[in-house]
Design goal:
This protein is an alpha/beta fold and about 575 residues long. Helix content is about 35%, strand content about 15%. The strands form three sheets. It has an eight-stranded mixed sheet with strand order 14-13-12-15-16-19-18-17, with helices on one face. A seven-stranded parallel sheet has the order 8-7-6-9-10-11-20, sandwiched between helices. Strands 1-5-4-3-2 form a five-stranded antiparallel sheet.
């Protein structure tokens, strides 16, 4: 039987500031929400309870006992949970305040395997196949659920799979791919397989792989070589394992950034004799293709899907408009209102970043080289040189696709606490190598977040070591990747099935008819209905009433233009 003393007075006119003596605070998530006691006072549920010393001792003992019972109940409840799915990482089980708790890159990782390189482990899937190298095959069930979720938000790709799998337009295709390995990429890979292709895959970014998704793909029979947190040596090793397999030679390349194309060109140039084409989706990769073409070294036709209108609008503009905030919030918990931000580059990625930050109340500056095409002034942003604002801004974001945009000189002049990140594909925009010197100290704060500390105590916050922020530190909208993945699939089908002579050894845009087809596949999701031209209207405009409605040269911008810089 519990007896509670009655000499307790509830005082409501108090504030935490009125408690001037040292206090002990205990917090939990159950009935005892907040407890602080000072001498003969107990604060509970936002009320201060005044009592005599004996009663005080009874109440404090009672509250402490309640708290112990509550934690015991929580532990018992935790032990009742199913264990066959494996143990989640500590940060995901207990707290969701860190990047690893939320990020797409934060896999359900068994911590016992964290110290062992996948290259040193022999793993096989349930069918005995071991032609893969991933973090942990046991995570396959988690990855399969994420893939199933992604399928719900990728209507065009699923529609393409349903319509074309009977025809098998990629029968005989051997596709080697190097992209971000996420749940959305898995839907693409399984679609290519359903259309008849064989696939081998590596990651184009050392931080963006979802380990559980890679496990699900390996369990499904795909040859995947990727894990989150690869070293530079691991990165190239994985690409080589994809390409260099006795008795198997690719005849199609799907690349994101150009590293796979570069590796084959450098190590296995004879492979291009059997390769029918390259599909490239990034600004950086397309730029490298145009360089090869200009030098007369491009051996096969290449399709530039980056400059497809749908891809530019959705993947580059709308996607980055959402994911820039997501990546910054998850890594730094920063409040955007009132912050001064400089965005380097005002292409579609830069436009998306600027629009999102402006909407959140940030003061946004833009650097750009093009005086006409991407002028930010008419959108309400101030056009500056980086050296004019580098001392005062709170956040620096690069999205140019260029190199050495933020060099050591600018890093030295930044204010204390400045956040530095990159939204471009490559890690060449921020001169991170210049920061790895003896006089500077690197301090890991959390996953993908580092403090770089100068001798005088000044520090900057560097995200993802200068690599792509959104896919390294957060997620991107699945619906957006449905646009990109469907465009990639159609480009592969087009190049693989094109009659000889249609495409020469050059870089081509995806035909506008296909671009419009990708967009039309997504309209039913919004219950959207297009207006149809009458015969008279179509004749007046000089168009086919069924499209294409834009000339093939039409695009929002071109990756072959000069790149943005400061």
């Amino acid at each position: 039987m519990l007896c509670v003393a009655t000499d307790i007075k509830i005082v409501t006119d108090w504030s935490p500031e009125s408690l001037t003596l040292p206090s002990l605070s205990l917090s939990s998530h159950g009935p005892i929400a907040y407890i602080a006691y000072i001498q003969e006072e107990v604060v509970c549920f936002g009320f201060r309870l005044e009592m005599a010393a004996p009663t005080f001792n009874i109440v404090v003992s009672f509250l402490s006992l309640c708290r112990q019972i509550q934690f015991a109940d929580q532990k018992q409840e935790f032990n009742k949970r199913p264990t066959k799915i494996g143990r989640r990482s500590l940060s995901r089980s207990i707290s969701q305040s860190s990047t690893d708790s939320y990020s797409s890159a934060a896999s359900y990782t068994d911590s016992s395997d964290d110290e062992t390189s996948p290259r040193d482990k022999q793993q096989k899937n349930s069918k005995g196949n071991g032609d893969f190298c991933i973090k942990n095959i046991k995570q396959a069930d988690f990855g399969r659920r994420e893939i199933e979720i992604a399928e719900q938000e990728m209507p065009a790709l699923m529609a393409l799979r349903k319509r074309a799998q009977g025809e098998k337009p990629l029968a005989g295709a051997k596709v080697v791919g190097c992209t971000h390995i996420t749940a959305q990429t898995a839907v693409l890979m399984e679609t290519l397989s359903a259309l008849g292709a064989q696939c081998r895959w590596a990651a184009c970014n050392i931080y963006s792989t979802q380990n559980e998704v890679a496990a699900a793909l390996a369990e499904g029979g795909f040859s995947v070589f990727a894990w989150k947190g690869e070293s530079e040596d691991d990165f190239w090793w994985c690409i080589d394992r994809c390409v260099n397999l006795e008795g198997w030679q690719p005849n199609m390349i799907l690349d994101d950034g150009g590293d796979l194309t570069h590796w084959i060109y450098k190590k296995y140039p004879n492979m291009f004799k059997k390769i029918k084409g390259i599909v490239e989706e990034s600004v950086t990769g397309v730029h490298r293709l145009y360089q090869l073409s200009k030098a007369g070294k491009l051996c096969v036709p290449a399709m530039n899907v980056n400059d497809s209108v749908t891809k530019q609008k959705f993947d580059n503009l709308y996607c980055c408009r959402e994911s820039i905030l997501d990546g910054l919030k998850r890594t730094t918990d920063v409040m955007f209102g009132g912050k001064q931000v400089v965005v380097c580059g005002y292409g579609e990625v830069g436009k998306g970043c600027c629009a999102a930050l402006k909407a959140m109340g940030s003061i946004v500056y833009v650097t750009e080289i093009d005086p006409i095409s991407h002028c930010p002034i008419m959108d309400g942003f101030r056009l500056v040189k980086l050296n004019e604002v580098i001392r005062q801004v709170d956040i620096v974001i690069t999205c140019t696709g260029n190199k050495n945009v933020v060099v050591r000189e600018y890093l030295d002049r930044m204010k204390n606490g400045c956040i530095v990140c990159n939204m471009g594909h490559s890690n060449t925009e921020i001169d991170v190598a210049s920061l790895r010197t003896p006089e500077l100290t690197w301090e890991r704060v959390r996953s993908q977040v580092d403090h770089v500390i100068w001798p005088d105590g000044k520090r900057i916050v560097l995200l993802a070591e200068g690599r792509l922020l959104n896919l390294s530190c957060s997620t991107v909208p699945t619906f957006v990747l449905s646009i990109t993945a469907t465009t990639q699939a159609l480009a592969l089908i087009e190049l693989y099935n094109a009659p000889e002579g249609r495409y020469k050894q050059d870089v081509y845009l995806l035909p506008k008819k296909m671009d419009e087809y990708v967009a039309s596949l997504h309209l039913p999701t919004f219950d959207a209905h297009l207006t149809e031209l009458s015969d008279e209207q179509a004749k007046y405009l000089g168009l086919n009433k069924n499209g294409p409605f834009k000339p093939n040269y039409y695009r929002l911008r071109t990756s072959s233009d000069q790149f943005n810089t400061t």
